[in-house]
Amino acid sequence: MTTLLRLDSSIDPVTSVTRRLTARFADRWASAGPDRRVVIHDLVANPVPHLAHESLHWAPSLRAADAPVLAEAQATQDAVIAELLAADVVVIGAPMYNYSIPSTLKTWIDHVHVPGVLAPFGDSGQPLKGRLAVVVTARGAVYDAGSENEGRDHTVPPIDIVLGDALGMRVETIAVSRTLSRTLPSMAGESSRFEAELAAAEERLDSLAASC
Ligand SMILES: Cc1cc2nc3c(=O)[nH]c(=O)nc-3n(C[C@H](O)[C@H](O)[C@H](O)COP(=O)(O)O)c2cc1C
Protein backbone atom coordinates (compact mmCIF):
# COMPACT_ATOMS: atom_id res chain seq x y z
CA MET A 1 0.00 0.00 0.00
CA THR A 2 1.30 3.44 -0.96
CA THR A 3 -0.04 6.47 0.86
CA LEU A 4 -0.59 10.09 -0.14
CA LEU A 5 -1.21 12.62 2.61
CA ARG A 6 -3.30 15.57 1.41
CA LEU A 7 -3.23 18.62 3.67
CA ASP A 8 -5.59 21.54 3.06
CA SER A 9 -5.61 24.89 4.84
CA SER A 10 -7.83 27.15 2.72
CA ILE A 11 -10.77 28.65 4.61
CA ASP A 12 -12.71 28.88 1.37
CA PRO A 13 -14.75 25.68 1.08
CA VAL A 14 -16.30 26.55 -2.30
CA THR A 15 -14.00 28.42 -4.70
CA SER A 16 -10.59 27.58 -3.24
CA VAL A 17 -7.90 27.19 -5.88
CA THR A 18 -5.57 25.23 -3.61
CA ARG A 19 -8.30 22.76 -2.61
CA ARG A 20 -9.23 22.29 -6.25
CA LEU A 21 -5.58 21.58 -7.10
CA THR A 22 -4.77 19.31 -4.15
CA ALA A 23 -7.94 17.33 -4.94
CA ARG A 24 -6.92 17.03 -8.58
CA PHE A 25 -3.43 15.85 -7.63
CA ALA A 26 -4.87 13.28 -5.20
CA ASP A 27 -7.36 11.97 -7.77
CA ARG A 28 -4.75 11.66 -10.49
CA TRP A 29 -2.25 10.06 -8.13
CA ALA A 30 -4.79 7.56 -6.76
CA SER A 31 -5.94 6.50 -10.22
CA ALA A 32 -2.39 5.98 -11.51
CA GLY A 33 -1.86 2.62 -9.84
CA PRO A 34 -3.35 -0.06 -7.57
CA ASP A 35 -3.08 -0.16 -3.79
CA ARG A 36 -3.03 3.60 -3.40
CA ARG A 37 -4.53 5.24 -0.35
CA VAL A 38 -5.24 8.95 0.11
CA VAL A 39 -5.37 10.33 3.65
CA ILE A 40 -7.01 13.77 3.79
CA HIS A 41 -6.19 16.01 6.73
CA ASP A 42 -8.26 19.17 6.49
CA LEU A 43 -6.46 21.54 8.83
CA VAL A 44 -9.49 23.84 8.93
CA ALA A 45 -12.01 21.17 9.91
CA ASN A 46 -9.49 19.30 12.05
CA PRO A 47 -6.88 21.82 13.22
CA VAL A 48 -3.68 21.00 15.02
CA PRO A 49 -3.46 23.08 18.22
CA HIS A 50 -0.66 25.51 18.92
CA LEU A 51 2.43 23.93 20.43
CA ALA A 52 1.87 23.82 24.17
CA HIS A 53 5.49 24.37 25.28
CA GLU A 54 8.85 25.24 23.73
CA SER A 55 10.27 21.86 24.78
CA LEU A 56 8.03 20.22 22.15
CA HIS A 57 10.25 21.73 19.46
CA TRP A 58 12.91 19.20 20.49
CA ALA A 59 13.15 15.43 20.62
CA PRO A 60 12.49 14.13 24.17
CA SER A 61 16.18 13.24 24.53
CA LEU A 62 17.17 16.87 23.80
CA ARG A 63 14.84 18.52 26.29
CA ALA A 64 15.90 20.16 29.53
CA ALA A 65 15.72 17.92 32.59
CA ASP A 66 13.06 20.14 34.11
CA ALA A 67 10.88 20.27 30.98
CA PRO A 68 7.26 19.57 31.89
CA VAL A 69 5.63 16.29 30.96
CA LEU A 70 2.75 17.18 28.65
CA ALA A 71 1.13 13.86 27.87
CA GLU A 72 -1.80 15.14 25.85
CA ALA A 73 0.25 17.62 23.80
CA GLN A 74 2.90 14.96 23.23
CA ALA A 75 0.27 12.49 22.01
CA THR A 76 -1.04 15.12 19.56
CA GLN A 77 2.44 15.80 18.25
CA ASP A 78 3.21 12.08 17.96
CA ALA A 79 0.02 11.58 15.93
CA VAL A 80 0.84 14.46 13.56
CA ILE A 81 4.36 13.13 13.03
CA ALA A 82 3.13 9.55 12.57
CA GLU A 83 0.65 10.71 9.92
CA LEU A 84 3.47 12.38 8.01
CA LEU A 85 5.88 9.47 8.40
CA ALA A 86 3.23 7.08 7.05
CA ALA A 87 2.97 9.11 3.83
CA ASP A 88 5.01 8.21 0.77
CA VAL A 89 3.96 11.46 -0.91
CA VAL A 90 2.50 14.67 0.54
CA VAL A 91 0.48 17.37 -1.18
CA ILE A 92 -0.06 20.60 0.75
CA GLY A 93 -2.52 23.37 -0.03
CA ALA A 94 -0.92 26.60 1.18
CA PRO A 95 -2.89 29.73 0.29
CA MET A 96 -1.29 33.10 0.99
CA TYR A 97 -2.90 34.85 3.94
CA ASN A 98 -1.44 38.25 4.79
CA TYR A 99 1.67 37.49 2.77
CA SER A 100 2.27 34.41 4.88
CA ILE A 101 1.24 30.86 5.82
CA PRO A 102 -2.31 30.16 7.08
CA SER A 103 -2.12 29.83 10.85
CA THR A 104 -3.57 26.32 10.68
CA LEU A 105 -0.74 25.17 8.43
CA LYS A 106 1.82 27.00 10.57
CA THR A 107 0.85 25.02 13.67
CA TRP A 108 1.19 21.81 11.66
CA ILE A 109 4.70 22.89 10.63
CA ASP A 110 5.55 23.74 14.24
CA HIS A 111 4.62 20.16 15.18
CA VAL A 112 6.72 18.41 12.54
CA HIS A 113 9.88 20.54 12.60
CA VAL A 114 11.47 18.67 15.49
CA PRO A 115 15.28 18.42 15.66
CA GLY A 116 16.27 14.92 16.74
CA VAL A 117 13.02 13.40 15.37
CA LEU A 118 12.36 14.55 11.77
CA ALA A 119 15.12 17.16 11.45
CA PRO A 120 18.76 16.24 11.98
CA PHE A 121 20.51 16.94 15.28
CA GLY A 122 23.78 15.31 16.25
CA ASP A 123 23.68 11.74 15.00
CA SER A 124 19.99 11.72 14.14
CA GLY A 125 19.07 11.70 10.46
CA GLN A 126 16.22 12.73 8.22
CA PRO A 127 13.65 9.90 8.07
CA LEU A 128 11.71 11.74 5.34
CA LYS A 129 14.76 12.39 3.18
CA GLY A 130 13.95 12.32 -0.53
CA ARG A 131 10.17 11.96 -0.14
CA LEU A 132 8.11 14.16 -2.43
CA ALA A 133 6.20 17.11 -0.98
CA VAL A 134 4.09 19.00 -3.52
CA VAL A 135 3.25 22.47 -2.23
CA VAL A 136 0.36 24.22 -3.97
CA THR A 137 0.02 27.91 -3.24
CA ALA A 138 -2.51 30.50 -4.41
CA ARG A 139 -2.43 34.23 -3.91
CA GLY A 140 -4.88 36.88 -4.83
CA ALA A 141 -2.55 39.49 -6.28
CA VAL A 142 0.45 39.61 -8.63
CA TYR A 143 3.91 38.59 -7.39
CA ASP A 144 5.84 38.60 -10.67
CA ALA A 145 9.38 39.95 -10.90
CA GLY A 146 9.14 43.70 -11.29
CA SER A 147 5.65 43.95 -9.76
CA GLU A 148 5.10 45.99 -6.61
CA ASN A 149 4.70 42.75 -4.63
CA GLU A 150 7.95 41.19 -5.79
CA GLY A 151 9.68 39.61 -2.80
CA ARG A 152 6.60 39.79 -0.56
CA ASP A 153 5.71 36.10 -0.71
CA HIS A 154 6.41 34.78 2.78
CA THR A 155 4.16 31.75 2.28
CA VAL A 156 6.33 29.42 0.25
CA PRO A 157 9.88 30.20 1.53
CA PRO A 158 9.44 28.95 5.13
CA ILE A 159 7.68 25.78 3.94
CA ASP A 160 10.50 25.20 1.50
CA ILE A 161 13.16 25.69 4.17
CA VAL A 162 11.49 23.47 6.78
CA LEU A 163 10.35 20.60 4.54
CA GLY A 164 13.26 20.84 2.10
CA ASP A 165 16.34 21.87 4.06
CA ALA A 166 15.45 20.67 7.56
CA LEU A 167 13.43 17.52 6.78
CA GLY A 168 15.24 16.72 3.53
CA MET A 169 12.07 16.27 1.47
CA ARG A 170 11.99 16.88 -2.27
CA VAL A 171 9.79 19.97 -2.47
CA GLU A 172 7.99 20.87 -5.69
CA THR A 173 6.13 24.16 -5.51
CA ILE A 174 3.29 25.13 -7.80
CA ALA A 175 1.94 28.69 -7.57
CA VAL A 176 -1.14 30.35 -8.99
CA SER A 177 -1.47 34.14 -8.69
CA ARG A 178 -4.15 36.65 -9.60
CA THR A 179 -6.96 34.57 -8.06
CA LEU A 180 -8.76 37.77 -7.01
CA SER A 181 -9.24 38.60 -10.71
CA ARG A 182 -12.30 36.33 -10.40
CA THR A 183 -14.01 38.71 -7.98
CA LEU A 184 -12.33 42.14 -7.92
CA PRO A 185 -13.33 44.43 -10.80
CA SER A 186 -10.01 46.25 -10.40
CA MET A 187 -8.21 43.01 -11.28
CA ALA A 188 -10.43 41.92 -14.13
CA GLY A 189 -7.64 42.65 -16.61
CA GLU A 190 -5.58 39.86 -15.00
CA SER A 191 -8.17 37.14 -15.52
CA SER A 192 -6.70 35.64 -18.69
CA ARG A 193 -3.29 35.38 -17.03
CA PHE A 194 -4.93 33.78 -14.00
CA GLU A 195 -6.58 31.19 -16.24
CA ALA A 196 -3.25 30.51 -17.94
CA GLU A 197 -1.49 30.04 -14.58
CA LEU A 198 -4.24 27.70 -13.42
CA ALA A 199 -4.00 25.60 -16.57
CA ALA A 200 -0.21 25.42 -16.25
CA ALA A 201 -0.53 24.39 -12.61
CA GLU A 202 -2.96 21.59 -13.53
CA GLU A 203 -0.65 20.33 -16.24
CA ARG A 204 2.34 20.33 -13.88
CA LEU A 205 0.37 18.57 -11.14
CA ASP A 206 -0.82 15.87 -13.55
CA SER A 207 2.73 15.27 -14.61
CA LEU A 208 3.97 15.09 -11.01
CA ALA A 209 1.13 12.74 -10.03
CA ALA A 210 2.06 10.41 -12.86
CA SER A 211 5.71 10.40 -11.78
CA CYS A 212 5.36 9.24 -8.19
C1 LIG B 1 -7.38 36.08 5.39
C2 LIG B 1 -6.92 36.31 3.97
C3 LIG B 1 -5.75 37.01 3.75
C4 LIG B 1 -5.30 37.20 2.44
N1 LIG B 1 -4.11 37.85 2.24
C5 LIG B 1 -3.62 37.97 0.99
C6 LIG B 1 -2.37 38.62 0.76
O1 LIG B 1 -1.67 39.03 1.68
N2 LIG B 1 -1.94 38.73 -0.52
C7 LIG B 1 -2.65 38.25 -1.57
O2 LIG B 1 -2.20 38.37 -2.72
N3 LIG B 1 -3.86 37.64 -1.39
C8 LIG B 1 -4.33 37.48 -0.14
N4 LIG B 1 -5.54 36.85 0.08
C9 LIG B 1 -6.22 36.24 -1.08
C10 LIG B 1 -5.87 34.76 -1.17
O3 LIG B 1 -4.49 34.55 -1.22
C11 LIG B 1 -6.51 34.17 -2.43
O4 LIG B 1 -7.91 34.30 -2.32
C12 LIG B 1 -6.15 32.72 -2.64
O5 LIG B 1 -6.79 32.28 -3.83
C13 LIG B 1 -6.55 31.87 -1.45
O6 LIG B 1 -6.35 30.49 -1.73
P1 LIG B 1 -7.59 29.55 -2.00
O7 LIG B 1 -8.13 29.98 -3.34
O8 LIG B 1 -7.04 28.18 -2.03
O9 LIG B 1 -8.59 29.75 -0.91
C14 LIG B 1 -6.03 36.67 1.36
C15 LIG B 1 -7.23 35.98 1.59
C16 LIG B 1 -7.67 35.80 2.89
C17 LIG B 1 -8.94 35.04 3.13
Distance between the termini: 13 Å
Strand order in space, largest sheet = 2-1-3-4-5
Question: CATH architecture, please?
Answer: 3-Layer(aba) Sandwich
Bound molecules: flavin mononucleotide
In total, the number of strands is 5
Question: According to CATH, what is the class?
Answer: Alpha Beta
Overall radius of gyration: 18 Å
Descriptive overview:
The protein is an alpha/beta fold. It has five helices and five strands. Strands 2-1-3-4-5 form a five-stranded parallel sheet, with helices on both faces. Helix 1 (17-31) packs parallel to helix 5 (191-210). The radius of gyration is 18 Å and the shape is globular. Flavin mononucleotide binds next to helix 1.
Q: What is this structure's SSE topology?
A:
Blueprint: E1 2-8, H1 17-31, E2 36-42, H2 71-85, E3 89-93, H3 103-112, E4 132-138, H4 156-166, E5 170-176, H5 191-210
Parallel strand pairs: 1-2, 1-3, 3-4, 4-5
The structure holds flavin mononucleotide.
